[in-house]
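I am writing to request your help with a piece of structural work I have in hand. The matter concerns a single protein, recorded as an amino acid sequence and a row of backbone structure tokens. Could you please explain, in whatever detail you think fit, how the structure tokens follow from the sequence? Thank you for your consideration; the sequence and its tokens are set out here:
>
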Amino acid sequence: MISKDETFHELHQGPAVLLLANCWDAGSARLLEHLGSKAVATTSAGVAWALGYGDIDDLPIAALLPAVAAMARVIEVPLSVDMVGGYSEDPATVGEHVAAVIGAGAVGINLEDGAATPDLTARKIESARKAAERAGVKLYINARTDVYLRGLVPEEDRVAETLSRAARYRDAGASGLFVPKVVDEGAIADIASGTTLPLNVLAWPQVPPARRLVELGVRRLSAGSGIALSALGRARAVASAFLREGRSDVLFPDAVPYAEMNRLFR
């Protein structure tokens, strides 16, 4: 039987785009699996908010690990964990954190550069790869670069800068490349053809549909925090109506039946 880490790597080889509808806790992870998701990935923002912290490295690793273990316990498909910047600026510590996340049940991770230099990010990736090798896991390291998300260079230089970082991260041990907020079809195609790493893009209002992304060379489309934010938006609307007007009817139209949800954990 093929292992979960091997399965997760194979899911990035096509022919279809791997659709990842990111979860934020064990309940949402199990629901996504039930809906047919071939793998489950976390949203760092959603997990942090669910545990009472802000996103971007505010979440203590000690709080993250039980959440990861709970998700891994209730699903059978591969689990990937968004580790933002590794929850440390020290590459050795990042390696320790990655080892702990693997121990909790993950076979994939995201590591992002954000405002960090490509050199530092590459050293974090190297440390993560060594930690995975020590654990005997073929970890899928999705290297996220925020060239587009943060506008790190002028627009005309973004494809070249993204590909420069992709090469560096690949050499450091990355398995895939994640480029949030790239939406232009030409830029997407240029990035996909300019790297050997499977390209992951983020769901965004202007991003082409999955059938077009396949043609452009994309291998993975992530919802990111979108589903968590949508769920919270719906909760805000329903709770506001309930608290403001005492209306019971607003609670039920979009609700998952209690019995159906409960059966997912039996």
In short: Residues 226-245 form the longest helix (20 residues).
